[in-house]
Structures are given as structure tokens and as C-alpha cells.
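Data follows
____________
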Amino acid sequence: QVRLVESGGGLVQAGGSLRLSCAASGNFFSYNNMGWYRQAPGKQRDLVATISSGEIINYAESVKGRFTISRDNAKNMVYLQMNSLKPEDTAVYYCVDVGRGSWGQGTQVTVSS
């Protein structure tokens, strides 16, 4: 069972930046495809970005050019650097082990206008 713990959320003004971190337990982390999803109030969970074991990266159109996903296999960590934040980025952000379908508990990101 993979355990995922997110951190780094908070309140930031529009145009600001935040860096989310996800700590993953378990072995063979480097083989796992990882991702970030988000869920805004009253909306469904949407894909933000994914990074494969081979570091192939995909982004949602809405965050391209502003967000950067990365991973550190030596530390079992996944990161999401979020720049030029907008109020519409406000959501709970979840770290996901895509292959295993494991989700973290989420971290709240709130962007004020």
C-alpha cells in the first residue's frame, strides 16, 4: 500500500507562487507514474499534471507555462511548482500514484484576487 502525503498549500495572492510537495512511502517509487489532480468547490476532480517513471510529462492546458511537475526518486518525492497563480487555481490539490490508484489526503490552495 502506497501512502502519499501532500504539503505546501496555503493562501497566496494572484500572481504569486507556491510549491507543493508529495512524500510517497513504499518501495520502487521510481517505477511509479505520479500526478497531481485538483478539485475546486462544487466541481469534479481534474488532472493538473503527470510525470511518468521515465519523466514524460503532461499538463492540463489551463496550467501549461505556469506549473512545473518534477520528481526526486532518491527522496520518494513529487513536486508541483505553481507560478503566476490565478483565483481559478483555488482548489484542493491531490497527489496521485496513477498506476496504483492511490491518493493523498489533499492540500488546500487558495488564491485571492
In short: The CA atoms of residues 37 and 47 lie 4 Å apart.
